[in-house]
Design goal:
Elements: E1 5-7, H1 11-14, E2 22-27, E3 30-35, E4 41-43, H2 53-64, H3 69-94, H4 100-133, H5 143-158, H6 161-166
Antiparallel strand pairs: 1-4, 2-3
Helix pairs in contact: 3-4, 4-5
Length: 170
């Protein structure tokens, strides 16, 4: 199913402040009540955009080449993962295949892939967030716990609406 209403602030963050799944919000000097599904989301927020070779070259020059060698392959693989769906779409179209089911699945992937990526990262740290809420931060004393949590925080920061707008390639 194509996910259209995509949250740029994780609802799990908002839930502790909610009563009956509702929170009060301040927007443009107006206070209003909203359910958690009704705020901090945008239609197709995570919809992928196809990267052309100039985009990839720019990302490599600015972000990948200066990275430590052990991370460079991981970064390049991530670009391939996010661009593969467009290669598949272009291949299907180039072969003259006009199957509506295939087109719909490709369209779903373009719309859902990044949101699902964030969802997996979020799911991996729920236990850490629950520990923090109960006053236990011992997971930060382990390399794995610390790295998982720092990675999560960095990804959360970079997915913010304002950051996406500032760093948009379009």
């Amino acid at each position: 199913m194509k996910k259209r209403k995509q949250h740029y602030v994780w609802r799990h963050y908002l839930k502790p402040w909610a009563t009956d799944n509702k929170v009060f919000c301040l927007r443009e000097n107006n206070v209003f009540e909203s359910n958690l599904m009704g705020i901090a989301n945008e239609r197709d927020f995570y919809r992928l955009k196809e990267l052309n070779q100039a985009d990839i070259d720019f990302i490599e020059k600015i972000a990948i080449d200066p990275s430590p060698a052990f991370l460079q392959k991981l970064h390049k693989d991530l670009i391939k993962q996010f661009n593969f769906i467009f290669e598949l779409r272009n291949f299907v179209q180039g072969q003259g295949i006009t199957n509506p089911d295939i087109s719909e699945r490709i369209e779903e992937a373009v719309n859902n892939l990044e949101e699902e990526f964030h969802g997996r990262i979020e799911d991996s740290v729920i236990r850490h967030l629950n520990s923090i809420r109960s006053g236990d931060i011992k997971f930060l004393e382990t390399d794995e716990g610390f790295m998982d949590f720092i990675y999560f925080l960095c990804v959360q920061y970079m997915r913010a609406k304002k950051i996406k707008k500032v760093f948009s390639l379009t």
